[in-house]
Amino acid sequence: MSDLQRLDRRVWWLVGGALLLSLAITAWDHWGRWHTPRLEVRNFVMLWLYWAPRLAGLPLLVGLWLRWRIERGARRWRHPVYAALVLVGLWSSWIEPYWIRVRHTTLSGIPAEAQPLKLALVADIHWGLFFRDRQLDDLVNRLNAMDVDAVIVAGDWTHEPTQDLRAGFAPLARLRHPVWGVLGNHDVQAPGPKLTAPLREALTQHGVRLIEGQAVPLKGWELVGLDDQWGGRPQPQIERLWPGGLSNDSTRRLVVVHQPDTVALLPKGAAFLSMAGHTHGGQIWIPGFSPWFLRKTNSLQPWWNGLYGTRAGQLLVTPGVGTIGLPARLGVRPTIDRIDLVR
């Protein structure tokens, strides 16, 4: 046996050991979380997919490189292909989920009675399985560095988080801007664990104002929040806030929802701008497949990422900052949307 073959054997033993260690860490990390009923095993598997690449990814690449060096013949070229797939996986789990961008949108022609406004829109934080404390700290730092009048959070604050929600969301208390938001489907058991009441309490204690079913003043505008469509009842709120489908204040209303589909329930001309999340922009973008998947699972409307014209008015869908399902993003960077409303 050559020295290269001995090294190859040691590396693959290392890969196996790393995978076993990742299972042990997953079991430890799985304990003490809110879990959606009957999805505990799924959460364990997803957590293992979070930890396994972090421990076994680099040894696996070394092992594939050694196999490429050792083997001869046509089968030798399998290993660079496998290595390329591993690199894509490592990029999508190690790099892109942490590579937050700020996307700028400027909308002109605001109503005369409204003041120019600068907003930071985020959604789908999903603090829990994949979005960890350090990322929440980093997000708060990024928001604090922005020159905006307010931060808007369009739902899905959680995804199977640890039990102490008050401690977990403590970084939000450092935000120097007012924060308004709504809850998303994962915050109201659609699906998700039964954490809505303690989540509301934790967010409120850290200065977040949740506004479902309310219209609050903001620099000459009305900021309107609506329930999540899957786990709440937005239709009665819409009927109350837009009686008869009309409102004298519609031209200066800014609507915050979690799901873009909720905007399709609004009356014509309901708002100057609506803001939503939920879709993650596809999270892992595969041309052809991702639009089909989004229409089957997330949204009946083709409003997934960016600015759209709708019957109710303009709609901005943010791809969010967290992840769900797989602990990865590919081709859809986590995003803070900076919105400037100007004359």
Automatic annotation (TrEMBL):
Q: Which residues cross the membrane?
A: 12-28, 48-68, 80-100
Tell me which Pfam families the record gives: Metallophos
Q: Which GO terms describe its cellular component?
A: membrane
Q: What class of enzyme is it?
A: hydrolase
Metal-binding recorded as keyword = yes
Q: What keywords are assigned to this protein?
A: Hydrolase, Membrane, Metal-binding, Transmembrane, Transmembrane helix
SUPFAM superfamilies assigned to the protein according to its UniProt record, in alphabetical order: Metallo-dependent phosphatases
Q: Does the keyword Cell inner membrane apply?
A: no
For the biological process aspect of GO, one term held by this record is: lipid A biosynthetic process
Q: What is its EC number?
A: 3.1.-.-
Report which superkingdom the organism of origin falls in.
Bacteria
* A GO MF label: UDP-2,3-diacylglucosamine hydrolase activity
Annotated Calcineurin-like phosphoesterase domain ranges read: 118-280
Output this protein's name: Putative metallophosphoesterase
